[in-house]
Design brief:
The complex is a heterodimer of chains A (about 375) and B (about 240). With about 375 residues, chain A is of the alpha/beta class. Chain A is built from 13 helices and 4 strands. Chain A is about 65% helix and about 5% strand. Chain A has a 4-stranded mixed sheet, sandwiched between helices. Chain B has a 6-stranded mixed sheet, with helices on both faces. In chain B, strands 1, 2, 3, 5 and 6 form a 5-stranded antiparallel sheet that branches. The chains are: A alpha/beta (about 375), B alpha/beta (about 240).
Protein backbone atom coordinates (compact mmCIF):
# COMPACT_ATOMS: atom_id res chain seq x y z
CA UNK A 1 0.00 0.00 0.00
CA UNK A 2 2.73 2.43 0.97
CA UNK A 3 4.69 1.67 -2.20
CA UNK A 4 1.53 2.17 -4.21
CA UNK A 5 0.98 5.55 -2.60
CA UNK A 6 4.46 6.68 -3.57
CA UNK A 7 4.29 5.34 -7.12
CA UNK A 8 0.88 6.83 -7.84
CA UNK A 9 1.90 10.51 -7.78
CA UNK A 10 4.91 9.84 -10.00
CA UNK A 11 2.96 7.82 -12.55
CA UNK A 12 0.09 10.29 -12.69
CA UNK A 13 2.42 13.23 -13.04
CA UNK A 14 4.15 11.63 -16.00
CA UNK A 15 1.00 10.40 -17.66
CA UNK A 16 -1.14 13.48 -17.25
CA UNK A 17 1.60 15.98 -17.97
CA UNK A 18 2.36 14.39 -21.29
CA UNK A 19 -1.10 13.42 -22.37
CA UNK A 20 -3.59 15.79 -20.76
CA UNK A 21 -2.55 19.21 -21.93
CA UNK A 22 -3.89 21.92 -24.18
CA UNK A 23 -1.52 21.50 -27.07
CA UNK A 24 -3.36 20.63 -30.23
CA UNK A 25 -1.10 18.73 -32.55
CA UNK A 26 -1.56 16.41 -35.49
CA UNK A 27 -4.73 18.05 -36.76
CA UNK A 28 -5.94 16.11 -39.78
CA UNK A 29 -5.93 18.40 -42.80
CA UNK A 30 -7.54 17.96 -46.20
CA UNK A 31 -6.16 20.10 -49.01
CA UNK A 32 -8.47 20.84 -51.90
CA UNK A 33 -6.19 22.38 -54.50
CA UNK A 34 -8.04 23.75 -57.55
CA UNK A 35 -5.02 25.77 -58.63
CA UNK A 36 -2.08 23.34 -58.71
CA UNK A 37 0.38 26.20 -59.00
CA UNK A 38 3.77 26.58 -57.28
CA UNK A 39 2.15 29.04 -54.90
CA UNK A 40 -0.67 26.71 -53.91
CA UNK A 41 1.75 23.84 -53.36
CA UNK A 42 3.96 26.08 -51.32
CA UNK A 43 1.05 27.02 -49.07
CA UNK A 44 0.04 23.38 -48.56
CA UNK A 45 3.64 22.46 -47.78
CA UNK A 46 3.80 25.22 -45.20
CA UNK A 47 0.84 23.65 -43.41
CA UNK A 48 2.36 20.21 -43.23
CA UNK A 49 5.77 21.57 -42.20
CA UNK A 50 4.29 23.45 -39.26
CA UNK A 51 3.98 20.36 -37.09
CA UNK A 52 0.40 21.19 -36.16
CA UNK A 53 -1.17 19.68 -39.23
CA UNK A 54 -0.94 16.35 -40.95
CA UNK A 55 -2.12 16.30 -44.53
CA UNK A 56 -4.51 13.37 -44.61
CA UNK A 57 -5.98 13.97 -48.01
CA UNK A 58 -5.18 15.92 -51.16
CA UNK A 59 -7.99 16.15 -53.65
CA UNK A 60 -9.56 18.29 -56.35
CA UNK A 61 -13.11 17.68 -55.28
CA UNK A 62 -14.61 19.75 -52.49
CA UNK A 63 -17.25 17.08 -51.97
CA UNK A 64 -14.66 14.46 -51.19
CA UNK A 65 -13.14 16.62 -48.46
CA UNK A 66 -16.56 17.41 -47.02
CA UNK A 67 -17.30 13.73 -46.88
CA UNK A 68 -14.04 13.05 -45.05
CA UNK A 69 -14.95 15.66 -42.46
CA UNK A 70 -18.40 14.20 -42.00
CA UNK A 71 -16.74 10.90 -41.22
CA UNK A 72 -14.38 12.51 -38.74
CA UNK A 73 -11.32 11.65 -40.79
CA UNK A 74 -10.44 15.30 -41.24
CA UNK A 75 -10.48 18.25 -38.82
CA UNK A 76 -9.72 21.15 -41.17
CA UNK A 77 -10.20 21.67 -44.88
CA UNK A 78 -7.97 24.08 -46.79
CA UNK A 79 -9.51 24.95 -50.11
CA UNK A 80 -7.35 26.82 -52.63
CA UNK A 81 -9.38 28.26 -55.53
CA UNK A 82 -8.37 28.15 -59.16
CA UNK A 83 -6.24 31.09 -60.32
CA UNK A 84 -4.92 31.50 -56.81
CA UNK A 85 -1.38 32.30 -57.88
CA UNK A 86 -2.48 34.49 -60.77
CA UNK A 87 -4.75 36.58 -58.56
CA UNK A 88 -2.06 36.87 -55.94
CA UNK A 89 0.45 38.21 -58.43
CA UNK A 90 -1.77 40.35 -60.60
CA UNK A 91 -4.26 41.68 -58.15
CA UNK A 92 -2.11 41.40 -55.08
CA UNK A 93 -5.05 39.65 -53.47
CA UNK A 94 -6.38 36.10 -53.32
CA UNK A 95 -8.72 34.13 -51.12
CA UNK A 96 -8.38 30.70 -49.58
CA UNK A 97 -11.08 29.01 -47.58
CA UNK A 98 -10.59 27.24 -44.28
CA UNK A 99 -13.30 25.03 -42.82
CA UNK A 100 -12.98 23.57 -39.33
CA UNK A 101 -14.91 20.79 -37.68
CA UNK A 102 -16.14 22.71 -34.63
CA UNK A 103 -17.67 19.83 -32.70
CA UNK A 104 -14.66 20.19 -30.46
CA UNK A 105 -14.67 23.97 -30.27
CA UNK A 106 -11.28 24.24 -28.59
CA UNK A 107 -9.63 22.14 -31.22
CA UNK A 108 -11.32 24.09 -34.01
CA UNK A 109 -10.41 27.45 -32.49
CA UNK A 110 -6.78 26.56 -31.95
CA UNK A 111 -6.55 24.94 -35.39
CA UNK A 112 -7.91 28.07 -37.05
CA UNK A 113 -5.49 30.17 -35.08
CA UNK A 114 -2.54 28.11 -36.25
CA UNK A 115 -3.85 28.15 -39.82
CA UNK A 116 -4.17 31.94 -39.88
CA UNK A 117 -0.62 32.31 -38.66
CA UNK A 118 0.59 30.04 -41.42
CA UNK A 119 -1.35 31.96 -44.06
CA UNK A 120 0.03 35.24 -42.75
CA UNK A 121 3.59 33.92 -42.85
CA UNK A 122 2.96 32.73 -46.37
CA UNK A 123 1.73 36.19 -47.36
CA UNK A 124 4.84 37.89 -46.08
CA UNK A 125 7.20 35.40 -47.69
CA UNK A 126 5.36 35.53 -50.98
CA UNK A 127 5.30 39.29 -51.03
CA UNK A 128 9.00 39.51 -50.28
CA UNK A 129 9.86 37.00 -52.97
CA UNK A 130 7.70 38.69 -55.54
CA UNK A 131 9.04 42.13 -54.73
CA UNK A 132 12.60 40.87 -54.95
CA UNK A 133 11.92 39.47 -58.38
CA UNK A 134 10.30 42.69 -59.56
CA UNK A 135 13.29 44.66 -58.36
CA UNK A 136 15.83 42.43 -60.08
CA UNK A 137 13.99 42.22 -63.41
CA UNK A 138 13.18 45.91 -63.52
CA UNK A 139 16.20 47.88 -62.38
CA UNK A 140 15.33 51.16 -60.84
CA UNK A 141 14.41 53.39 -63.75
CA UNK A 142 11.93 55.69 -62.25
CA UNK A 143 13.09 57.63 -59.31
CA UNK A 144 11.15 56.92 -56.23
CA UNK A 145 9.22 54.13 -57.97
CA UNK A 146 6.89 53.14 -55.18
CA UNK A 147 6.43 49.53 -56.25
CA UNK A 148 10.13 48.81 -56.13
CA UNK A 149 10.37 48.90 -52.34
CA UNK A 150 9.03 46.14 -50.15
CA UNK A 151 5.80 47.05 -48.35
CA UNK A 152 6.52 48.07 -44.81
CA UNK A 153 4.89 45.63 -42.42
CA UNK A 154 4.42 45.93 -38.72
CA UNK A 155 5.65 42.86 -37.01
CA UNK A 156 4.38 41.87 -33.64
CA UNK A 157 6.91 40.16 -31.43
CA UNK A 158 5.84 38.02 -28.50
CA UNK A 159 7.61 37.26 -25.29
CA UNK A 160 6.06 34.69 -23.04
CA UNK A 161 6.90 35.47 -19.47
CA UNK A 162 7.42 32.81 -16.81
CA UNK A 163 7.14 30.05 -19.37
CA UNK A 164 9.22 31.30 -22.30
CA UNK A 165 9.09 28.12 -24.33
CA UNK A 166 5.33 27.79 -23.84
CA UNK A 167 5.93 24.37 -22.39
CA UNK A 168 2.61 23.05 -21.16
CA UNK A 169 4.28 20.61 -18.84
CA UNK A 170 5.57 23.52 -16.82
CA UNK A 171 2.01 24.71 -16.53
CA UNK A 172 0.50 21.32 -15.77
CA UNK A 173 2.93 19.58 -13.43
CA UNK A 174 2.56 21.82 -10.35
CA UNK A 175 -1.21 21.70 -10.67
CA UNK A 176 -1.37 17.98 -11.26
CA UNK A 177 0.75 17.38 -8.17
CA UNK A 178 -1.76 19.21 -6.01
CA UNK A 179 -4.65 17.41 -7.62
CA UNK A 180 -3.06 13.98 -7.06
CA UNK A 181 -2.18 14.60 -3.44
CA UNK A 182 -5.70 15.91 -2.82
CA UNK A 183 -7.19 12.88 -4.53
CA UNK A 184 -5.20 10.28 -2.62
CA UNK A 185 -5.50 12.01 0.74
CA UNK A 186 -9.21 12.66 0.24
CA UNK A 187 -9.96 9.04 -0.47
CA UNK A 188 -7.74 7.56 2.23
CA UNK A 189 -9.29 9.68 4.94
CA UNK A 190 -12.87 9.38 3.75
CA UNK A 191 -12.61 5.61 3.82
CA UNK A 192 -10.76 5.50 7.11
CA UNK A 193 -13.31 6.18 9.86
CA UNK A 194 -16.16 4.49 8.07
CA UNK A 195 -13.99 1.40 7.63
CA UNK A 196 -13.45 1.24 11.38
CA UNK A 197 -17.19 1.51 11.79
CA UNK A 198 -17.71 -1.37 9.37
CA UNK A 199 -15.28 -3.73 11.08
CA UNK A 200 -16.27 -2.58 14.57
CA UNK A 201 -12.96 -1.36 15.94
CA UNK A 202 -14.41 2.11 16.45
CA UNK A 203 -16.68 0.77 19.19
CA UNK A 204 -13.70 -0.18 21.30
CA UNK A 205 -12.32 3.35 20.88
CA UNK A 206 -15.66 4.94 21.68
CA UNK A 207 -15.88 3.28 25.09
CA UNK A 208 -12.55 4.86 26.04
CA UNK A 209 -12.39 8.39 27.41
CA UNK A 210 -10.45 9.55 24.33
CA UNK A 211 -11.56 13.05 23.30
CA UNK A 212 -13.02 13.75 19.89
CA UNK A 213 -10.24 16.15 18.91
CA UNK A 214 -7.62 13.66 20.05
CA UNK A 215 -9.21 11.02 17.88
CA UNK A 216 -9.24 13.25 14.76
CA UNK A 217 -5.72 14.51 15.45
CA UNK A 218 -4.49 10.93 15.86
CA UNK A 219 -6.05 10.06 12.53
CA UNK A 220 -4.75 13.20 10.86
CA UNK A 221 -1.06 13.06 11.77
CA UNK A 222 0.02 9.92 9.89
CA UNK A 223 -1.81 10.96 6.73
CA UNK A 224 -0.39 14.45 7.04
CA UNK A 225 3.17 13.09 7.13
CA UNK A 226 2.34 10.80 4.23
CA UNK A 227 1.07 13.74 2.19
CA UNK A 228 4.34 15.61 2.76
CA UNK A 229 6.32 12.59 1.63
CA UNK A 230 4.12 12.27 -1.43
CA UNK A 231 4.63 15.92 -2.27
CA UNK A 232 8.40 15.54 -1.94
CA UNK A 233 8.41 12.53 -4.24
CA UNK A 234 6.14 14.30 -6.73
CA UNK A 235 8.21 17.48 -6.79
CA UNK A 236 11.41 15.49 -7.21
CA UNK A 237 9.85 13.58 -10.09
CA UNK A 238 8.68 16.83 -11.69
CA UNK A 239 12.15 18.32 -11.39
CA UNK A 240 14.03 15.27 -12.65
CA UNK A 241 11.72 14.31 -15.44
CA UNK A 242 10.28 17.60 -16.67
CA UNK A 243 12.78 20.02 -15.25
CA UNK A 244 9.94 22.21 -14.04
CA UNK A 245 11.23 25.54 -12.83
CA UNK A 246 11.47 26.03 -9.09
CA UNK A 247 11.98 29.73 -8.92
CA UNK A 248 10.38 30.25 -5.53
CA UNK A 249 11.39 29.23 -2.05
CA UNK A 250 10.98 25.49 -1.48
CA UNK A 251 10.54 26.05 2.25
CA UNK A 252 7.48 28.11 1.41
CA UNK A 253 6.19 25.30 -0.81
CA UNK A 254 6.41 22.86 2.09
CA UNK A 255 4.90 25.28 4.59
CA UNK A 256 2.01 25.73 2.20
CA UNK A 257 1.64 22.01 1.52
CA UNK A 258 1.62 21.34 5.25
CA UNK A 259 -1.30 23.76 5.54
CA UNK A 260 -3.11 22.66 2.41
CA UNK A 261 -3.22 18.88 3.01
CA UNK A 262 -5.12 19.22 6.31
CA UNK A 263 -7.92 20.78 4.22
CA UNK A 264 -8.31 17.55 2.29
CA UNK A 265 -7.72 15.46 5.42
CA UNK A 266 -10.46 17.20 7.38
CA UNK A 267 -12.70 17.08 4.35
CA UNK A 268 -12.25 13.30 4.07
CA UNK A 269 -12.90 12.73 7.78
CA UNK A 270 -16.00 14.90 7.60
CA UNK A 271 -17.41 12.75 4.79
CA UNK A 272 -16.37 9.57 6.58
CA UNK A 273 -18.29 10.60 9.68
CA UNK A 274 -21.47 10.95 7.65
CA UNK A 275 -21.11 7.72 5.73
CA UNK A 276 -22.56 4.39 6.71
CA UNK A 277 -20.41 2.33 4.38
CA UNK A 278 -17.15 2.64 2.49
CA UNK A 279 -19.15 2.51 -0.71
CA UNK A 280 -21.17 5.56 0.25
CA UNK A 281 -18.01 7.41 1.28
CA UNK A 282 -16.40 6.61 -2.07
CA UNK A 283 -19.33 7.99 -4.02
CA UNK A 284 -19.49 11.14 -1.94
CA UNK A 285 -15.77 11.86 -2.18
CA UNK A 286 -15.78 11.22 -5.88
CA UNK A 287 -18.67 13.61 -6.36
CA UNK A 288 -16.79 16.44 -4.68
CA UNK A 289 -13.35 15.63 -6.04
CA UNK A 290 -14.58 15.64 -9.60
CA UNK A 291 -15.95 19.15 -9.12
CA UNK A 292 -12.83 20.28 -7.26
CA UNK A 293 -10.47 18.93 -9.92
CA UNK A 294 -12.37 20.20 -12.95
CA UNK A 295 -12.83 23.63 -11.40
CA UNK A 296 -9.38 24.06 -9.88
CA UNK A 297 -7.98 26.04 -12.78
CA UNK A 298 -5.86 23.23 -14.13
CA UNK A 299 -8.06 22.63 -17.14
CA UNK A 300 -9.97 25.88 -17.57
CA UNK A 301 -8.96 29.25 -16.15
CA UNK A 302 -10.90 30.12 -13.01
CA UNK A 303 -11.19 33.72 -14.25
CA UNK A 304 -13.28 32.63 -17.24
CA UNK A 305 -15.88 30.87 -15.12
CA UNK A 306 -19.22 32.53 -14.42
CA UNK A 307 -19.32 34.67 -11.30
CA UNK A 308 -21.38 32.18 -9.28
CA UNK A 309 -18.90 29.43 -10.10
CA UNK A 310 -16.06 31.62 -8.92
CA UNK A 311 -17.90 32.13 -5.67
CA UNK A 312 -18.39 28.38 -5.28
CA UNK A 313 -14.72 27.94 -5.92
CA UNK A 314 -13.99 29.61 -2.59
CA UNK A 315 -14.79 26.18 -1.15
CA UNK A 316 -12.48 24.38 -3.57
CA UNK A 317 -9.21 23.69 -1.77
CA UNK A 318 -7.39 22.49 -4.88
CA UNK A 319 -7.98 25.80 -6.62
CA UNK A 320 -5.89 27.60 -3.97
CA UNK A 321 -3.15 25.05 -4.29
CA UNK A 322 -2.90 25.28 -8.08
CA UNK A 323 -2.75 29.06 -7.90
CA UNK A 324 -0.10 28.93 -5.19
CA UNK A 325 2.11 26.42 -6.96
CA UNK A 326 2.14 28.45 -10.15
CA UNK A 327 2.83 31.68 -8.35
CA UNK A 328 5.68 30.30 -6.28
CA UNK A 329 7.27 27.62 -8.44
CA UNK A 330 7.01 29.43 -11.77
CA UNK A 331 6.98 33.10 -10.82
CA UNK A 332 9.02 33.01 -7.65
CA UNK A 333 6.41 34.75 -5.53
CA UNK A 334 7.31 35.28 -1.87
CA UNK A 335 5.12 35.00 1.21
CA UNK A 336 3.91 38.58 0.90
CA UNK A 337 2.52 37.84 -2.57
CA UNK A 338 0.57 34.76 -1.55
CA UNK A 339 -0.52 35.95 1.90
CA UNK A 340 -4.24 36.05 1.05
CA UNK A 341 -4.12 32.61 -0.50
CA UNK A 342 -2.20 31.20 2.48
CA UNK A 343 -4.58 32.54 5.08
CA UNK A 344 -7.59 31.37 3.08
CA UNK A 345 -6.20 27.86 3.12
CA UNK A 346 -5.29 28.09 6.79
CA UNK A 347 -8.85 29.18 7.63
CA UNK A 348 -10.20 26.41 5.45
CA UNK A 349 -8.04 23.82 7.21
CA UNK A 350 -9.11 24.94 10.67
CA UNK A 351 -12.79 25.15 9.73
CA UNK A 352 -13.02 21.80 7.98
CA UNK A 353 -11.15 19.98 10.75
CA UNK A 354 -13.41 21.67 13.28
CA UNK A 355 -16.33 20.20 11.33
CA UNK A 356 -14.65 16.80 11.34
CA UNK A 357 -14.30 16.88 15.14
CA UNK A 358 -17.84 18.15 15.54
CA UNK A 359 -19.37 15.51 13.26
CA UNK A 360 -17.55 12.63 14.90
CA UNK A 361 -20.08 11.15 17.31
CA UNK A 362 -18.89 8.86 20.03
CA UNK A 363 -22.45 8.01 20.95
CA UNK A 364 -25.11 6.87 18.50
CA UNK B 1 -22.91 -4.11 49.28
CA UNK B 2 -23.46 -0.92 47.32
CA UNK B 3 -24.97 -0.72 43.88
CA UNK B 4 -22.44 0.04 41.17
CA UNK B 5 -24.93 0.11 38.31
CA UNK B 6 -28.47 1.38 38.62
CA UNK B 7 -30.98 2.01 35.88
CA UNK B 8 -34.37 3.66 36.04
CA UNK B 9 -36.95 3.08 33.31
CA UNK B 10 -34.13 2.87 30.77
CA UNK B 11 -35.63 2.78 27.27
CA UNK B 12 -34.33 2.78 23.74
CA UNK B 13 -36.45 2.81 20.63
CA UNK B 14 -35.40 2.51 16.99
CA UNK B 15 -38.24 4.07 15.03
CA UNK B 16 -41.36 2.21 16.11
CA UNK B 17 -39.42 -0.71 17.54
CA UNK B 18 -38.69 -0.66 21.26
CA UNK B 19 -35.46 -2.56 21.79
CA UNK B 20 -35.20 -1.90 25.51
CA UNK B 21 -38.47 -1.23 27.29
CA UNK B 22 -38.22 0.71 30.56
CA UNK B 23 -35.85 -1.57 32.43
CA UNK B 24 -35.08 -0.82 36.07
CA UNK B 25 -32.48 -2.91 37.86
CA UNK B 26 -29.23 -2.64 39.78
CA UNK B 27 -25.94 -4.49 39.92
CA UNK B 28 -23.99 -4.81 43.17
CA UNK B 29 -20.34 -4.04 43.49
CA UNK B 30 -18.11 -7.06 42.97
CA UNK B 31 -20.72 -9.46 41.61
CA UNK B 32 -20.84 -11.40 38.39
CA UNK B 33 -24.11 -10.34 36.86
CA UNK B 34 -25.49 -12.48 34.06
CA UNK B 35 -27.55 -10.63 31.48
CA UNK B 36 -29.53 -13.34 29.73
CA UNK B 37 -31.93 -13.36 26.85
CA UNK B 38 -32.56 -14.72 23.39
CA UNK B 39 -31.02 -13.07 20.34
CA UNK B 40 -32.74 -9.75 19.77
CA UNK B 41 -34.10 -9.52 23.34
CA UNK B 42 -32.31 -6.19 23.84
CA UNK B 43 -29.21 -7.27 25.82
CA UNK B 44 -26.65 -5.60 23.58
CA UNK B 45 -28.72 -2.42 23.26
CA UNK B 46 -28.94 -2.15 27.06
CA UNK B 47 -25.22 -2.76 27.38
CA UNK B 48 -24.42 -0.11 24.78
CA UNK B 49 -26.47 2.43 26.70
CA UNK B 50 -24.62 1.61 29.92
CA UNK B 51 -21.23 1.95 28.22
CA UNK B 52 -22.15 5.25 26.59
CA UNK B 53 -22.17 3.96 23.01
CA UNK B 54 -25.87 4.59 22.57
CA UNK B 55 -28.01 7.34 24.01
CA UNK B 56 -31.18 6.29 25.84
CA UNK B 57 -34.53 7.39 24.43
CA UNK B 58 -35.77 7.92 27.97
CA UNK B 59 -34.96 6.91 31.52
CA UNK B 60 -31.63 7.16 33.27
CA UNK B 61 -28.71 5.06 34.44
CA UNK B 62 -25.67 5.51 36.65
CA UNK B 63 -22.48 3.51 36.40
CA UNK B 64 -19.82 3.71 39.12
CA UNK B 65 -21.75 6.65 40.58
CA UNK B 66 -21.83 8.73 37.40
CA UNK B 67 -24.72 9.50 35.09
CA UNK B 68 -24.08 7.75 31.76
CA UNK B 69 -25.79 10.53 29.86
CA UNK B 70 -24.32 13.57 31.61
CA UNK B 71 -20.84 12.35 32.62
CA UNK B 72 -19.82 9.91 29.89
CA UNK B 73 -16.08 10.51 30.26
CA UNK B 74 -16.15 9.83 34.00
CA UNK B 75 -17.98 6.60 33.31
CA UNK B 76 -15.66 5.59 30.48
CA UNK B 77 -12.57 5.97 32.61
CA UNK B 78 -13.97 3.39 35.03
CA UNK B 79 -15.35 0.75 32.71
CA UNK B 80 -13.96 -1.90 30.43
CA UNK B 81 -15.90 -3.21 27.47
CA UNK B 82 -15.56 -6.25 25.30
CA UNK B 83 -17.77 -6.09 22.26
CA UNK B 84 -19.68 -8.95 20.71
CA UNK B 85 -17.77 -8.29 17.52
CA UNK B 86 -14.03 -8.71 18.01
CA UNK B 87 -12.79 -5.16 17.97
CA UNK B 88 -9.06 -5.03 18.52
CA UNK B 89 -7.02 -4.02 15.47
CA UNK B 90 -6.36 -7.19 13.47
CA UNK B 91 -3.65 -5.47 11.43
CA UNK B 92 -1.66 -4.59 14.55
CA UNK B 93 0.37 -7.08 16.56
CA UNK B 94 -0.60 -8.25 20.05
CA UNK B 95 2.01 -5.95 21.54
CA UNK B 96 0.90 -2.95 19.47
CA UNK B 97 -2.74 -3.38 20.47
CA UNK B 98 -1.79 -3.45 24.15
CA UNK B 99 0.39 -0.38 23.74
CA UNK B 100 -2.32 1.48 21.84
CA UNK B 101 -5.03 0.91 24.44
CA UNK B 102 -2.64 1.50 27.32
CA UNK B 103 -1.82 4.83 25.72
CA UNK B 104 -5.44 5.76 25.07
CA UNK B 105 -6.28 5.21 28.75
CA UNK B 106 -3.33 7.41 29.69
CA UNK B 107 -1.08 4.75 31.24
CA UNK B 108 2.59 5.60 31.53
CA UNK B 109 5.01 3.77 29.24
CA UNK B 110 6.58 1.98 32.23
CA UNK B 111 3.15 0.82 33.41
CA UNK B 112 2.28 -0.43 29.96
CA UNK B 113 5.54 -2.37 29.80
CA UNK B 114 5.06 -4.09 33.12
CA UNK B 115 1.40 -4.87 32.39
CA UNK B 116 2.35 -6.19 28.98
CA UNK B 117 4.75 -8.67 30.58
CA UNK B 118 2.18 -9.88 33.11
CA UNK B 119 -0.55 -10.15 30.52
CA UNK B 120 1.52 -12.04 27.94
CA UNK B 121 2.65 -14.41 30.68
CA UNK B 122 -0.87 -15.02 31.97
CA UNK B 123 -2.36 -15.66 28.54
CA UNK B 124 0.75 -17.60 27.44
CA UNK B 125 0.90 -15.32 24.43
CA UNK B 126 4.65 -14.63 24.74
CA UNK B 127 5.65 -16.34 21.48
CA UNK B 128 2.72 -14.67 19.68
CA UNK B 129 3.42 -11.16 20.97
CA UNK B 130 4.74 -9.86 17.65
CA UNK B 131 2.23 -11.63 15.45
CA UNK B 132 -0.70 -9.82 13.93
CA UNK B 133 -3.81 -10.23 16.03
CA UNK B 134 -5.75 -11.26 12.92
CA UNK B 135 -3.65 -14.43 12.73
CA UNK B 136 -4.63 -15.66 16.21
CA UNK B 137 -7.34 -18.29 16.79
CA UNK B 138 -10.68 -16.88 17.97
CA UNK B 139 -10.34 -18.20 21.52
CA UNK B 140 -7.04 -16.39 22.00
CA UNK B 141 -8.41 -13.24 20.47
CA UNK B 142 -11.28 -13.25 22.95
CA UNK B 143 -8.95 -13.74 25.90
CA UNK B 144 -6.72 -10.96 24.62
CA UNK B 145 -9.70 -8.63 24.14
CA UNK B 146 -10.79 -9.31 27.70
CA UNK B 147 -7.32 -8.61 29.06
CA UNK B 148 -7.07 -5.38 27.07
CA UNK B 149 -10.42 -4.31 28.52
CA UNK B 150 -8.89 -4.79 31.99
CA UNK B 151 -5.68 -2.90 31.21
CA UNK B 152 -6.67 0.37 32.89
CA UNK B 153 -8.01 -1.44 35.99
CA UNK B 154 -11.68 -0.58 35.53
CA UNK B 155 -14.23 -1.04 38.30
CA UNK B 156 -16.73 -2.65 36.00
CA UNK B 157 -16.27 -4.75 32.90
CA UNK B 158 -19.03 -5.30 30.38
CA UNK B 159 -18.68 -8.49 28.37
CA UNK B 160 -21.04 -8.87 25.43
CA UNK B 161 -21.35 -12.56 24.56
CA UNK B 162 -17.67 -13.18 25.19
CA UNK B 163 -17.84 -16.90 24.59
CA UNK B 164 -20.00 -17.12 21.51
CA UNK B 165 -18.37 -19.15 18.82
CA UNK B 166 -15.50 -20.61 20.86
CA UNK B 167 -14.95 -24.25 21.78
CA UNK B 168 -16.05 -25.67 25.18
CA UNK B 169 -12.51 -25.86 26.53
CA UNK B 170 -11.84 -22.20 25.74
CA UNK B 171 -15.19 -21.26 27.20
CA UNK B 172 -14.15 -22.93 30.44
CA UNK B 173 -10.81 -21.13 30.44
CA UNK B 174 -12.59 -17.89 29.76
CA UNK B 175 -14.84 -18.32 32.76
CA UNK B 176 -11.76 -19.03 34.86
CA UNK B 177 -10.46 -15.63 33.75
CA UNK B 178 -13.78 -14.06 34.73
CA UNK B 179 -13.59 -15.62 38.21
CA UNK B 180 -9.98 -14.52 38.67
CA UNK B 181 -11.07 -11.00 37.80
CA UNK B 182 -14.07 -11.08 40.13
CA UNK B 183 -11.82 -12.06 43.03
CA UNK B 184 -9.95 -8.77 42.65
CA UNK B 185 -13.18 -6.89 43.36
CA UNK B 186 -14.09 -5.99 39.78
CA UNK B 187 -17.78 -6.10 38.90
CA UNK B 188 -18.60 -8.07 35.76
CA UNK B 189 -21.70 -7.79 33.67
CA UNK B 190 -21.86 -10.62 31.16
CA UNK B 191 -24.41 -11.21 28.45
CA UNK B 192 -24.79 -14.74 27.17
CA UNK B 193 -27.27 -17.07 25.64
CA UNK B 194 -25.56 -20.21 26.99
CA UNK B 195 -27.78 -21.16 29.92
CA UNK B 196 -25.11 -23.31 31.53
CA UNK B 197 -23.01 -20.18 31.88
CA UNK B 198 -25.84 -18.55 33.80
CA UNK B 199 -25.13 -21.02 36.61
CA UNK B 200 -21.68 -19.43 37.09
CA UNK B 201 -23.16 -15.99 37.81
CA UNK B 202 -23.97 -14.53 41.22
CA UNK B 203 -27.23 -13.12 39.94
CA UNK B 204 -28.91 -13.23 36.56
CA UNK B 205 -31.62 -11.30 34.80
CA UNK B 206 -33.60 -12.70 31.90
CA UNK B 207 -34.72 -10.32 29.18
CA UNK B 208 -37.62 -11.11 26.89
CA UNK B 209 -38.69 -8.63 24.19
CA UNK B 210 -36.91 -5.67 25.75
CA UNK B 211 -38.22 -6.25 29.29
CA UNK B 212 -36.56 -7.88 32.29
CA UNK B 213 -38.85 -10.81 33.13
CA UNK B 214 -36.89 -12.24 36.06
CA UNK B 215 -33.93 -11.19 38.21
CA UNK B 216 -32.48 -13.30 41.00
CA UNK B 217 -29.73 -15.73 41.94
CA UNK B 218 -29.75 -18.81 39.69
CA UNK B 219 -30.68 -21.02 42.65
CA UNK B 220 -33.66 -18.88 43.73
CA UNK B 221 -34.82 -18.62 40.14
CA UNK B 222 -34.81 -22.38 39.69
CA UNK B 223 -36.78 -22.79 42.91
CA UNK B 224 -39.30 -20.18 41.82
CA UNK B 225 -39.93 -21.93 38.56
CA UNK B 226 -39.54 -25.38 40.08
CA UNK B 227 -37.03 -26.12 37.36
CA UNK B 228 -34.06 -28.48 37.19
CA UNK B 229 -31.80 -26.10 35.28
CA UNK B 230 -31.55 -22.52 34.08
CA UNK B 231 -32.24 -23.84 30.62
CA UNK B 232 -35.70 -24.90 31.72
CA UNK B 233 -36.33 -21.55 33.45
CA UNK B 234 -35.38 -19.75 30.29
CA UNK B 235 -37.59 -21.86 28.06
CA UNK B 236 -40.61 -21.27 30.30
CA UNK B 237 -40.01 -17.52 30.34
CA UNK B 238 -39.34 -17.21 26.66
CA UNK B 239 -42.48 -19.15 25.82
CA UNK B 240 -44.39 -16.51 27.82
Amino acid sequence: MLVLLLIMPVLQTILLSYAANYEVKNLALAVVDHDLSPASRQLAAKFSASGYFKVKQTTFATKEADHAMANDRVDIILEIPAHFERDLVRENHATVSLVANAINATKAGLGMGYAQNIVRDFNIEFAEKWMARTVSTAPATAEGGGYATAPSTVQITYSNWYNPKLDYKTFMVPGILGEIVALIIGFLTALNIVREREIGTIEQLNVTPVQKWQFILGKLLPFWLLSLVMMTVGLAAGKLMFDIPMVGNLGLVFLYTATFTPCMLGFGFFISNFSDSQQQATFTVWFFLLIFILMCGLFTPVESMPQWAQWLNVLNPIQYFVEFMRLVLLKGADFQDIKTNYFSVLTYAIAVNGLAVWSYKKRA
Amino acid sequence: MTNIITTHQLTRTFGKFTAVDAITFSVKEGEIFGFLGANGAGKTTALKMLTGLLSPSSGSATVAGFDVWKQPDQVKRRIGYMSQKFSLYEDLTVRENIRLYGGIYGLKMSEIKSKMGVLLEKLQLGPEADKLVGALPLGWKQKLAFSVALLHEPKIVFLDEPTSGVDPLTRRQFWELIYETAVTGVTLMVTTHYMDEAEYCDRVSIMVDGKIQALDTPRAMKEDFKAESMDEVFRRLARG
